[in-house]
């Protein structure tokens, strides 16, 4: 069976040359921020227009991936899929959504980490099995991708994409084809996977939501309100609670590490497929990735980010006239810093929220002051002022250097930078697009050297202990490998070397 509206072949969608909005300049491709891999969304809601619900859920999760988007719906054993390169609002229209019928939907918005930036790698990944099709949306990264790919190749599987997500889908289909049920097949396949995976999987029989044994990437469960008293409960799964809020779904709980949740017409069933899960939620979800209005551990991430700003002010005070933020991610921490230090908070940088990615190369002069395409300083606020600028992280240092130069050009007499996380010293292999270690400024230079390189009067980072203590949770609950190198899931040396090789190839291409 061929999925309806599938964009599985490169020629099935607009080519990159015809879609200038979707191509990043070299300047933008060398991002100075870690990039989240994906957002996933799923809904089981008989009687609802599930494609539209999924569209709005993905719209709320757009910050987790701006490269491609897709939705698959099920009507019995018939699957319909539409996916393409671009933002959610660019990929879907009223017409395309109307061509996605059914009671069950799976959606995905992607930023590539494993697999190149091509439409064949857009998700959901749809594969056939003995029991019918399955559609899989994946947030995370496997660390045993080469081994799993070889296993599947040896059993005569062919591959449409270059993603680890397709491998998970094929592994499930293979297990189902060996006379297993959907649940048995999924659990058998999950035990072949190592790394980070939060999954939403659609089948003709129901909707699955799954987290890896460490729960590295988040996944939550919500319920839609009943329209009629006897109506069955309708379930929603999303990477973050903001994906529930936008469609009026009520947060129920998180999918637990090592749990498979199965939503069908009979209700919600839970299966713990590992004996001893060890939670290791990515701490960067708390610091930066998740939207500030999303809730984790019973509070909004805005509250946590304000607390680490207060802690930063206690640990690293400075004399200044103003506290400003790098918008938008640095704002809550900057407000917290201001509250504790007593130094007034002001907007010193205005963000152009509509700049997007552009195919048009800027002029040389624009490139030299390229940060102003996205951030523009307020000269009358900054002139003659000693400024503390708060940001959530420094990866390469290139953006920070441009920001500092722009603040000085606007008349700031002193620039002190405060970072609401520790130095990033190790790459992530669990679904965040970070540089290889030799490209991470925190791994190759001291704090004093970084301060000199980016041109600030002083630079201080939040302590590792302060970051974890302000979560008000057990520090062992979090993965902080990007700061410590202590990886909760062992990473094969071949994977580490391949990341370094890919980084060098990319740098030469730029």
TrEMBL record:
Top EC class of this enzyme:
transferase
- List ligand-binding residues for Mg(2+): 329, 391-392
Matching SUPFAM superfamilies: N-terminal nucleophile aminohydrolases (Ntn hydrolases), PRTase-like
Keyword terms of this UniProt record:
4Fe-4S, Glutamine amidotransferase, Glycosyltransferase, Iron, Iron-sulfur, Magnesium, Metal-binding, Purine biosynthesis, Transferase
Is Mitochondrion set as a keyword in this record? no
Membership in a protein family: In the C-terminal section; belongs to the purine/pyrimidine phosphoribosyltransferase family.
Purpose of the protein = Catalyzes the formation of phosphoribosylamine from phosphoribosylpyrophosphate (PRPP) and glutamine.
Recorded protein name is Amidophosphoribosyltransferase
Organism this protein belongs to: Oscillatoriales cyanobacterium SpSt-418
- Which gene does this sequence derive from? purF
């Amino acid at each position: 069976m061929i999925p309806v509206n599938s964009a599985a072949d490169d020629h099935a969608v607009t080519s990159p040359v015809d879609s200038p909005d979707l191509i990043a300049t070299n300047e933008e491709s060398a991002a100075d921020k870690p990039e989240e891999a994906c957002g996933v969304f799923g809904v089981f809601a008989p009687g609802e227009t599930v494609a539209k619900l999924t569209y709005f859920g993905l719209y709320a999760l757009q910050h987790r991936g701006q490269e491609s988007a897709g939705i698959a719906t099920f009507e019995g054993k018939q699957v319909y899929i539409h996916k393409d390169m671009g933002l959610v609002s660019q990929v879907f229209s009223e017409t395309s959504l109307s061509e996605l019928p059914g009671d069950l939907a799976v959606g995905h918005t992607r930023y590539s980490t494993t697999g190149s930036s091509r439409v064949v790698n857009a998700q959901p990944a749809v594969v056939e099995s003995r029991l019918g099709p399955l559609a899989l949306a994946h947030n995370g990264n496997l660390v045993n991708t080469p081994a799993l790919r070889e296993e599947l190749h040896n059993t005569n599987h062919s591959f449409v994409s270059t993603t680890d997500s397709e491998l998970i889908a094929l592994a499930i289909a293979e297990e189902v084809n060996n006379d297993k049920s959907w649940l048995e097949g999924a659990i058998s396949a999950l035990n072949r996977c190592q790394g980070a995976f939060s999954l939403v999987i659609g089948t003709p029989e129901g909707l699955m939501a799954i987290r890896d044994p460490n729960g590295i990437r988040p996944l939550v469960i919500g319920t839609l309100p009943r329209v009629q008293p006897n109506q069955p409960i309708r379930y929603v799964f999303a990477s973050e609670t903001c994906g529930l809020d936008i469609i009026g779904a009520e947060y129920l709980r998180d999918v637990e590490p090592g749990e498979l949740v199965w939503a069908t017409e009979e209700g919600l069933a839970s299966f713990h497929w590992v004996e001893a899960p060890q939670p290791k939620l990515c701490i960067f979800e708390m610091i930066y990735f998740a939207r500030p209005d999303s809730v984790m551990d019973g509070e909004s991430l805005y509250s946590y980010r304000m607390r680490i700003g207060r802690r930063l002010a206690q640990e690293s005070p400075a004399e200044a006239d103003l506290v400003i933020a790098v918008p938008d991610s640095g704002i809550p921490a900057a407000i917290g810093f201001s509250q504790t230090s007593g130094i007034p908070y002001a907007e010193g940088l205005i963000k152009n929220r509509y700049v997007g990615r552009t195919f048009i190369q800027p002029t040389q002069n624009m490139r030299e002051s390229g940060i102003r395409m996205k951030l523009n300083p307020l000269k009358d606020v900054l002139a003659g002022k000693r400024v503390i600028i708060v940001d959530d992280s420094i990866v390469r240092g290139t953006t920070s250097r441009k920001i500092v130069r722009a603040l000085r050009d606007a008349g700031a007499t002193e620039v002190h930078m405060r970072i609401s996380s520790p130095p990033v010293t190790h790459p992530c292999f669990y679904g965040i697009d970070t540089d290889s270690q030799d490209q991470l400024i925190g791994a190759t230079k001291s704090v004093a050297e970084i301060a000199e390189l980016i041109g600030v009067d002083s630079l201080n980072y939040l302590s590792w202990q302060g970051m974890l203590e302000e979560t008000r949770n057990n520090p062992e609950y979090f993965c902080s490998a990007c700061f410590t190198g202590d990886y909760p899931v062992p990473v094969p040396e071949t994977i580490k070397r391949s990341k370094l090789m890919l980084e060098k190839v990319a740098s030469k291409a730029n």
